[in-house]
Amino acid sequence: MRSQSATITITRAVTVAAGVFAPGHLGELTQYLPFELVDDILAQTKTVQRRLRDLPSRVGVYFLLALGMYPGWAMPGSGPS
């Protein structure tokens, strides 16, 4: 008797931001921390910008996360050569 293993395919829909705030523009962090979650956290803490600026609150969150991942890059001249 041959043993057969069942396979299953799972698909899911992912909502992404458009334009300059799209995942490719914000970096790979948006794949691990969805922008909907960041927007929800900003809304709950009442820290969403009141008008659209060049650097929206959402982008600032991802920037701070990146600085936390690469703390040496926060200092001028300490990044890769």
Q: Shape, please?
A: extended
User: Helix segment count?
Assistant: 4
How far is the first residue's CA from the last residue's CA? Answer: 61 Å
Strand content: under 5%
Helix content: 25-40%
The average pLDDT value, as a whole number, equals 76
Low-confidence stretches: none
Whole-angstrom Rg: 19 Å
* Number of E-type strands: 0
SSE topology string: HHHH
| Helix vs. strand class | mainly alpha
Major sheet characteristics: none
Secondary structure layout plus pairing:
Layout: H1 23-26, H2 29-32, H3 35-44, H4 57-69
Provide structural commentary.
- This protein is an all-alpha fold and 81 residues long.
- The chain has a domain at 19-73.
- The protein has helices at residues 23-26, 29-32, 35-44, 57-69.
- The relative contact order is 0.12.
- The model has no long low-confidence stretch (mean pLDDT 76).
List keywords for this structure.
about 80 residues; mainly alpha
In short:
The chain is mainly alpha-helical.
